[in-house]
Amino acid sequence: MIRTAVIMAAGLGTRMRQADDGAALNASQSVVAEAGVKGMIPIRRPFLEYVLSALADAGVDDVVLVIGPQHEAIRRHFTVEAPPRRVRVRFAVQPEPIGTANAVTTAATLVGAAPFLVLNADNYYPVEAYRALAADDSAGTIAFDRETLGGEGNIDAERVRAFAVLTVTDDGYLAGIIEKPGEALDLASSAARWVGMNLWAVTPDIVDACRRVPRSRRGEFELPEAVALALRDGVRVRAIRMAAPVLDLSRRADVAVVAARLGDIEPQP
Q1: What domains can you pick out in the chain, each with its CATH number?
Q2: Which of 104, 48, 92 is nearest to 68 (CA)?
Q3: What is the torsion angle, in degrees rounded to the nearest 10, for the CA atoms of residue 53, residue 57, residue 63 and residue 66?
Q4: CA–CA separation, 96 vs 106, rounded Å?
């Protein structure tokens, strides 16, 4: 079983910092949103506490937070103000936010050769997704059902265009990835059924691909493109189909929705 998770929290939060007069934020949420530190948006507790609590529920007891040099508030919260009781938290500093593959290689210097989960700091994934992915030490991902993401989560059909669309074989392995398909994606097609939400089980083969992957068109080192490189090299990646919601906290308009969905949860990281 995989017991370590890497949470990518070094992004600049560009979308969260954008003004939105229609978003219902309280004073403390507005302050954090201005700073773009999405994982620290207070729901009742900082959003990352809910993420850590879900990981602990799934049996993960070691977490590496990948943060930027400017994110001392995150480090202070989890080491001084509210140290978690159920998980050990360590920190890896990504000097520049140059992509998710770079975040993985940054964290791998702490984790070593053991496999680990990788996830976004601004998504709340279901506990069953963590459990399913962590149950095996091999490389893998969760393929989320598109309709469930929109119907039970807050990821509508148009937002799917900003994530990855996965091709899954009949025997449950990843065959291909279309990263951020944009307008090229026909949302009504069967090819758009399975969505990748950047939740992975990463092995040394995937870390090696993260070190070798070239910069994307956006100028970043992208984890999905590294996985695609590993697939071309013959690495087998499990793709666990799952009809379950994911909450996305990337914009100010998301805060009220996420707060309502998490309102009954008392995080215990």
Answers
A1: 4-261 (3.90.550.10)
A2: 92
A3: -50
A4: 11
